[in-house]
Design brief:
The protein is 26% helix and 32% strand. The termini are far apart. It has 80 residues and is of the alpha+beta class. It comes from Aurantiacibacter xanthus. This is MoaD/ThiS family protein.
């Protein structure tokens, strides 16, 4: 199976697509490797949040995404 990555906002532009499937299960290091260097650098920042199956992940380094799950990558919210 796979883990679905969902990129929102400017992260979708950087990823080149709004979604990507990667081999699971997936931990933090595996996620960074799957993203590639440019996108991984953005995601490591404190302002980018992760949600695993709809629930925010408090500690990104403790990410443990089993097969069939979804990780949403949430960029900082911009005001307007």
């Amino acid at each position: 199976m796979a883990v679905k990555l969902v990129f929102l906002g400017k992260l979708a532009d950087l990823a080149g697509a709004p979604e990507r499937d990667v081999a699971g299960p997936l931990d933090w290091d595996g996620l960074l490797a799957a993203l590639g260097p440019q996108l991984a650098a953005q995601v490591q920042g404190e302002k980018v949040k992760l949600a695993l199956d709809g629930a925010l992940v408090a500690d990104k380094a403790a990410l443990a995404a089993p097969d069939g799950s979804e990780i949403a990558l949430l960029p900082p919210v911009s005001g307007g």
